[in-house]
Amino acid sequence: MSLIAWQTVFCFFIPLTLASVVDDSYSSYEDAYDALLNVFFPIIFVVLLNVSGRPGPTKNVILPLLDDILYNTVTWAIPLIVSFSYNDLLSIRIFSIINMSLHVLCAAIALIRHKLVSDVINYVHSLTDRGWLVNQHLDAYIWTGTSFFLICFPVMAIPVFWIDYITNNQEFDSIALLFIVLFGILSASTILVIPAITKLRKRTAVIFFVIWFYSPNFLQTILILLKWPINFYFVKAFVFVLMVSLTRSVSYFTDNAPPRFLATSTTTVQVVISEIVKKHYGYEEKSVSGIQNQMNEVQNLLDELQRQLDKLQSKINETR
């Protein structure tokens, strides 16, 4: 009799317990998407850093092409996608198309020339030994022009465009004001430094090159994610692309680029910058502490971006 009673109680309470933990209104798509990206990013981070210095004919072509794709995605593809997703962003669309045309032209020229990183490294060593603008052949002119364009054009065009866009649309919230200040600093640095670039010490000039090449696209992407997020999936995808792009960029400074790497436009610029940095700041090989510091910086950046995304998601939920 007692056994029957226990079975009755057990069968009665178990369904109630199971029913109480089931939320029929919950949709797992966003959380599953978020979890997958969080799982795969550290894996891709480690893989991309570890394969950078290893030889291989397929990798020598695929990784430089990946760098070009990532850089162009961050530079003009993300703004272009956003401009087509919103109806009132015609000026951003036009700017992105112009940006796309110029960057695709640089990429096409580099692919047509089909040179290797070893050629670029020899050219860089010649530059740093004999002066900034020593040109001996057509490829030297192309590498010089590509490097200066991809370094100087974004830092001159992107800040000016966004400052003008924000002020003309009178979007003076805290985020807009912050980016006006940041873009203003970048613009001021170009006005003050570029006219005197040949007179600067190379150790000083290369610092500006690093800031000018990486900062504008990064700031532009963060601004777009904060102001025009489209939806949760696009935000997470854009952040993922940005982080993978930064991971690949870090590898040029922590590893020596393989000499047989295809010299795409983005690869050329990053090799030029990294080789000058290594030459004038006295390191040739990657150090464990340096890599650890880079990983810590990336992790801090990921944490900050996650906090911003959580705020955005809460705002989106409130407006629904």
UniProtKB/TrEMBL annotation:
What keywords sit in the KW lines? Coiled coil, Membrane, Signal, Transmembrane, Transmembrane helix
Q: Which residues form the signal peptide?
A: 1-19
- Name the chain's protein: 7061_t:CDS:1
Coiled-coil regions, chain positions? 288-318
The source's domain of life comes to Eukaryota
The organism's lineage is: Eukaryota, Fungi, Fungi incertae sedis, Mucoromycota, Glomeromycotina
Q: Which organism is it from?
A: Paraglomus occultum
The residues that cross the membrane are 35-53, 92-112, 140-163, 175-194, 206-226, 232-253
